Amino acid sequence: MFRAGPPSHTLLRPLLLQMSLLLVLAVGRGLGRASPAGGPLEDVVIERYHIPRACPREVQMGDFVRYHYNGTFQDGKKFDSSYDRSTLVAIVVGVGRLITGMDRGLMGMCVNERRRLIVPPHLGYGSIGVAGLIPPDATLYFDVVLLDVWNKADTVQVSTLLRPPHCPRMVQDSDFVRYHYNGTLLDGTAFDTSYSRGGTYDTYVGSGWLIKGMDQGLLGMCPGERRKIVIPPFLAYGEKGYGTVIPPQASLVFHVLLIDVHNPKDTVQLETLELPPGCVRRAMAGDFMRYHYNGSLMDGTLFDSSYSRNHTYNTYVGQGYIIPGMDQGLQGTCMGERRRITIPPHLAYGENGTGDKIPGSAVLIFDVHIIDFHNPADPVEIKTLSQPPEACNETAKPGDFVRYHYNCSLLDGTKLFSSHDYGAPQEATLGANKVIEGLDTGLQGMCVGERRQLVVPPHLAHGESGARGVPGSAVLLFEVELVSREEGLPEGYLFVWHEDPPANLFEDLDLNKDGEVPPEEFATFIKAQVSEGKGRLMPGQDSEKTIGDMFQNQDRNQDGKITMEELKLKSDEDQERVHEEL
């Protein structure tokens, strides 16, 4: 595309003056008719030996035309030709600047039509002729091809060839546009194309950077629209033409495909495509977000997609980690929301673009699906779904051994794990680092039979790295039901008495009264205390292992038996430790 300003090439020399024969007024102006029986012709004889299929307009009186011709006598001898001068005839028709026969012969012609005209003497140069060139009373034969026609009253002609079903905005004055084009003369001769340069033509509209006709022809276009724009010479390059490719007084035809449009004053445009019900929180600056997206140019060309990588895009919002337009567009979204974000280039990759897929000054469109977001300061969100029918006086606390059913999923509904898949409840001792911190917190305070929904942020779950089956930085959603609870033991205890221990504990342990307690006697005694309800072991552990650990703790010298001197209750040990510290 050429700029509207003066060309850098040397201008064409002024057109050679047309032969005086084309400028002389006709001697005779009678309309006349063709003579019968081979007599003298009364009017021009017109043979239309090539008529184009499409004829959007025909030559009328007062039109400006450009055409080539060969002029001969009846015997075929050539007396003149525009081809020999390599210059088209450019002139107004029907105002006396041509011989009458030519004026009449051009009327009604279409661009690219070819005619053979037979002009009788009285409609040519009559009985005078042209000295040394055309004898008196000569009948003239012209082969004419029309290449251009326009009128001073013409305006830019716009034809919409393809209009997309969705038009987010139309071109206005002062907008910046990117478009492809093919430029031809009215006869179809190509003079320029953006496609051959491998890039769009990028410019402002209505700011004097383009020829006036193109400025007008682009107005109202939608991205993705195809137009045919026909521009008369006085709204193009006028009498001077442009270099060697656009002759003077040439009408121009542009087939244009608009790629995108924006204005330097544009802001980010947001369109909610789908909003899930029950949005209780919206993303804000400082949140960490996981989302999927498809990124395309305004003409629909896809340049990137997180789906192709089968992985969400994970980033902080409002912290400058992503382009400013996306930073703005993601704020205010809900989990599960689908949103279209249209970003002008000054809030994206600017005039330079990036890589080989995002050109300079490109408007970007992102269709995003918000998977989840959280803030590093978020706690576990707890929502009670149902309470047991009976009154609940005791709730789960750290140290308790609990059994619970759960379903675990991502916030977009993707199922991860479920205790129901294993046919048995999950077991854990609260506060013992046996489950992720957020789940441990969410189970505390529950009654047996209670159901809860827990939203666990990643810093209280599996963090940035994730776990097997859990993506990094994923917020987890749990539905839990507490099936049973066994009260735990104080920290550091493996067994506690429900009442005071026996006054002569060692004697009771020494079942065979031999002054020492081997592992078998120790285990028999402890199991009896548990079965009789006098004491209890740490819940959730293998009782044999727990009893074995208790024996090892009492067998101070590790000789495989406990003596009276070795046997001490933990409460006594703790008291001795306090006394020693004091």
From TrEMBL:
Q: Where is the EF-hand domain?
A: 497-532, 542-577
Enumerate the residue ranges of region (Disordered). Answer: 533-582
Please state where this protein is localized: Endoplasmic reticulum
Main localisation, per the record? Answer: endoplasmic reticulum
Write down the top EC class of this protein.
isomerase
Where is the PPIase FKBP-type domain positioned along the sequence? 62-150, 174-262, 286-374, 399-486
- In terms of superkingdom, the source organism counts as Eukaryota
State the reactions this protein catalyses: [protein]-peptidylproline (omega=180) = [protein]-peptidylproline (omega=0)
TM region(s), chain numbering: none
> Cross-referenced PROSITE patterns, in alphabetical order?
EF_HAND_1, EF_HAND_2, FKBP_PPIASE
Q: Which Pfam families match?
A: EF-hand_5, FKBP_C
Q: Which SMART domains match?
A: EFh
User: What's in the keyword line of the UniProt record?
Assistant: Calcium, Endoplasmic reticulum, Glycoprotein, Isomerase, Metal-binding, Repeat, Rotamase, Signal
Under InterPro entries, the record lists: EF-hand-dom_pair (IPR011992), EF_Hand_1_Ca_BS (IPR018247), EF_hand_dom (IPR002048), FKBP-like_isomerase (IPR051989), PPIase_dom_sf (IPR046357), PPIase_FKBP_dom (IPR001179)
Q: Which GO terms describe its molecular function?
A: calcium ion binding; peptidyl-prolyl cis-trans isomerase activity
One Gene Ontology CC term in the entry: endoplasmic reticulum
Biased-composition ranges for Basic and acidic residues?
Answer: 556-582
Query: What's the Enzyme Commission number for this chain?
Result: 5.2.1.8
Signal peptide range: 1-34
Described by its record, this protein's role is as follows: PPIases accelerate the folding of proteins during protein synthesis.
Q: Report what the protein is called.
A: peptidylprolyl isomerase
Please name the source species.
Molossus molossus
Highest classification ranks of the organism: Eukaryota, Metazoa, Chordata, Craniata, Vertebrata
